[in-house]
């Protein structure tokens, strides 16, 4: 907009991993605006289409499309004075606003490289032999996350996954009375180590 603000929209959802924050940061960075001058909207099917939210693909897909839209927008503005803000350039060409749509989809690299192998998690699981209660006293994870968009929340994301996944795996180990089901323990403890 000519008042040096931007609105970014997508039909994506946000289940709590910081989609609002990350997309706002990407747009602000690409447009050269302070973060408080960018407004991000999501979750309406009338907005540009987005893939299913999950599997660590929202940032890679929607984030790439946000950057693409911002770069397309900037390329449409006169660039005589790069220090001049985009609002001033819009006013100079007589516009109050300008719209651009970004696009992102897997390319040939999706056939050549895995996008799922980004970390390893190891858990110590203890089972009380008398009562069958299960405890997880220690979990250690190592991740290769690529570019960190928001360093404030990046360290907590694996912890959030542990809080969600460990109880899920432990429920699979327990029978109706909360005790370990015989014959299942070895399989599910291995799943806890390998699947994560």
Measured by DSSP, the beta-strand proportion falls in 5-15%
Distinct helical segment count: 6
Strand order of the largest sheet: 1-2
Termini Cα gap:
44 Å
Helix content: 25-40%
Computed Rg: 23 Å
Looking at the structure, what is the overall shape? elongated
Largest sheet: 2 strands, parallel
Order of SSEs: EHEHHHEEHH
SS content category: alpha+beta
Summed up, what is this model?
The protein has six helices and four strands; from the N terminus they run βαβαααββαα.
Task: Describe the structure in your own words.
This protein is α+β, with helices and mostly antiparallel strands and about 200 residues long. The chain has six helices and four strands. The chain has helices at about 20-30, 60-75, 85-90, 110, 155-175, 185-195, and strands at about 5-10, 40, 120-125, 135-145. The protein has a two-stranded parallel ribbon. A two-stranded antiparallel ribbon has the order 3-4. Strand 1 (about 5-10), helix 1 (about 20-30) and strand 2 (about 40) form a beta-alpha-beta unit.
Write the layout of secondary structure elements.
Layout (H helix, E strand, L loop, with lengths): L5 E5 L8 H13 L6 E5 L15 H18 L10 H7 L16 H4 L6 E9 L6 E10 L12 H18 L11 H10 L2
Helix pairs in contact: 1-2, 5-6
Attribute tags:
single chain; 196 residues; alpha+beta; 36% helix; 15% strand
């Amino acid at each position: 907009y000519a008042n040096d603000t931007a609105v970014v929209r997508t039909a994506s959802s946000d289940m709590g991993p910081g989609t609002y924050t990350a997309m706002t940061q990407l747009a602000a960075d690409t447009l050269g605006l302070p973060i408080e001058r960018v407004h991000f909207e999501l979750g309406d099917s009338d907005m540009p289409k987005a893939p299913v939210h999950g599997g660590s693909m929202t940032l890679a897909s929607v984030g790439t499309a946000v950057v693409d839209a911002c770069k397309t927008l900037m390329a449409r503005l006169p660039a005589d004075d790069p220090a001049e803000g985009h609002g001033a350039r819009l006013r100079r060409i007589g516009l109050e606003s300008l719209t651009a749509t970004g696009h992102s989809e897997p390319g040939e690299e999706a056939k050549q490289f895995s996008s799922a192998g980004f970390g390893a998690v190891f858990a110590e699981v203890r089972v009380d032999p008398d009562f069958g209660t299960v405890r997880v006293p220690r979990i250690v994870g190592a991740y290769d996350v690529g570019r960190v968009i928001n360093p404030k929340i990046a360290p907590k994301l694996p912890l959030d996954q542990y809080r969600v996944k460990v109880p899920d795996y432990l429920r699979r180990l327990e029978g109706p009375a909360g005790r370990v089901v015989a014959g299942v323990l070895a399989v599910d403890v291995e799943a806890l180590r390998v699947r994560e």
